[in-house]
């Protein structure tokens, strides 16, 4: 009888511990979702409730040591008085998960595009696995003919980790397309803060002034590389000029 009572208490305690863990998990998920929703409102972006699980999973796995950097080779570094002005790099041929966005504001496009890619990274893919974070997440932007403004249509892209390059998991979201990008030479300059139409124009003009031969690069297509998520206040970014093929 005593054994039955002890066994019953054990199962009761085990069950209550599981319930408590589940309750804490739900509270944490709700807290993270609320935070992202408040940040989203600042960018005029609605963060839907179905983002709660991907946000929690990404936050859990957001260990800097586990992020895979996109491999590249440095060809040249241009410095002035000890400050790095820009780097010339070679990026190899690789597969990327890409999504085209066309919201009213650049900030809205990158936030919404990033959320869609988060779902793909967080198990909403044919492998059913968490794919892992690679940095940077890049956004391809285009300029009008007079190079006076950034066009609304952008492409947000996620580099597939090395282990998945041969056979990338397929996205459930039909808006996400797996593309193979050719080997490319870029001229890269870092900058901090928010990325919007104004800051992008400023950084493009600044790098164009610094480069000895900017005409060797594409004049209507540029890349913004983001090393922190779009919700971060003080983002770490780079502007990339693409050398003509």
Walk me through what this model shows:
The chain is an alpha+beta fold and 245 residues long. The chain has two domains: 14-59, no CATH class; 67-243, Alpha-Beta Barrel (Multidrug-efflux Transporter 1 Regulator Bmrr, Chain A). It is 33% helix and 31% strand. It has four helices and eleven strands; from the N terminus they run H-H-E-E-E-E-H-E-E-E-E-E-H-E-E. It has helices at 2-42, 52-60, 106-121, 197-210; strands at residues 68-69, 72-80, 83-91, 94-101, 134-135, 137-142, 154-159, 176-181, 184-192, 217-226, 236-243. A nine-stranded antiparallel beta sheet has the order 2-3-9-11-10-6-7-4-8, with helices on one face. A two-stranded parallel ribbon has the order 1-5. The longest helix has 41 residues, at 2-42. It is globular. Residues 17-29 have a biased composition (Acidic residues). Belongs to the HEBP family. InterPro entries: Reg_factor_effector_dom_sf (IPR011256), SOUL_heme-bd (IPR006917). It holds the Pfam family SOUL.
Structural class: alpha+beta
Number of domains: 2
Q: Helix-strand pattern, N to C?
A: HHEEEEHEEEEEHEE
Shape: globular
Strand content: 25-35%
CATH class of the largest domain: Alpha Beta
Q: Tally the helices.
A: 4
User: What is the fold-level CATH name, i.e. the topology of the largest domain?
Assistant: Multidrug-efflux Transporter 1 Regulator Bmrr, Chain A
Mean pLDDT: 85
Distance between the termini: 82 Å
CATH architecture of the largest domain: Alpha-Beta Barrel
Helical fraction equals 25-40%
The total of beta strands comes to 11
Spatial strand order of the main sheet? 2-3-9-11-10-6-7-4-8
Rounded radius of gyration (Å): 22 Å
* CATH homologous superfamily grouping of the largest domain: Regulatory factor, effector binding domain
Major sheet attributes: 9 strands, antiparallel
Outline the low-pLDDT stretches: none
